[in-house]
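Weekly modeling sync, notes
Attendees: AB, CL, MP (scribe)

Item 1: holo prediction request
CL wants a bound-state model with S-adenosylmethionine before deciding which constructs to order. AB pointed out that an apo prediction alone won't tell us much about the pocket. Agreed to run with the ligand included and paste results into these notes for async review.

Input as submitted:
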Amino acid sequence: MTSEMDQQDDTYLVGYGDAAQAWISHRTAESHAAFFTPHLKSGMTLLDCGCGPGGITVGLAAKVAPGAVTAIDIESAQLAKATQRAADEGLTNITFEEANLFDLPYDDNSFDAIYMSAVLSNLQRPHDAMAEVYRVLKPGGVAGFNEFDSGGDIYYPMLPGIQRSTELYFKLREHVGDDPRGGRRLKALLHQAGFQCDLMQAIYEIIEPAHYAHAASVQFEQDLGPTLIDLGLTTEKEIQHMSADWAKFAKHPDAFVGAAWVQALGRKS
Ligand SMILES: C[S@@+](CC[C@H](N)C(=O)[O-])C[C@H]1O[C@@H](n2cnc3c(N)ncnc32)[C@H](O)[C@@H]1O
């Protein structure tokens, strides 16, 4: 279940600031798991790995009810939000558990279905996490992965501060050891773990530009900025220039943002 590598810390760069939460909380099974839900049936057991605030989890749970859903996250505050969301929606078939997906506290071959969204590209050892998912999935079971690939994101107009924000974001991800283009690696990760890959597709999430611009500038000013300055990759002054361009972008009548996601289905034979 565990290996020597599992003992190492994994840095979760996105963090839990308001900007990151604003991104994540609006996601639903309809918006981010439509490729996966047709494979779910009432009565299935399902594991949601890295459930975050639970917006997608509740939609998956409704599909398999009265089947039991286990939703895990490494961060207790995320689980508290997800628990509240499930209660608000009247769902009683979800158990929320604090767990590390590098060392899942479940027996081999435990679940009929497993889902994971926006987690693998945040990990320095995605292949180890994928191996754990493979281990706890039942033979014949299906696993759905929804993963961002920042290399496919589209911004218009590409103002200088936005170009620079993108460059710094990639530099920081690479410094930490994440793969910000992780989505495109899903099929390779699936094959490496032993899965058969039944689907590999890419979609765009169209995001309201002012909302995106606000979250991006808050994230640079508050969450990522201090680390970038400590690493000598930017300065306070440059962050202010970037924020000014995000503010222009937010008001620009022609602004457009498309965020790239790669989605894959893995089957365990
Ligand atoms: C970007 S959020 C995605 C949340 C949700 N799946 C979604 O797409 O809306 C990533 C989540 O993975 C969790 N996470 C990161 N590393 C983890 C680990 N090693 N084990 C379990 N959860 C982890 C984080 O705490 C965070 O809640």
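Recorded for review: Residues 10, 12, 14, 24, 27, 50-52, 55-56, 72-75, 78, 100-102, 117-119, 122 surround S-adenosylmethionine (CB under 6 Å).
Action items: CL to compare against the apo run; MP to circulate these notes.
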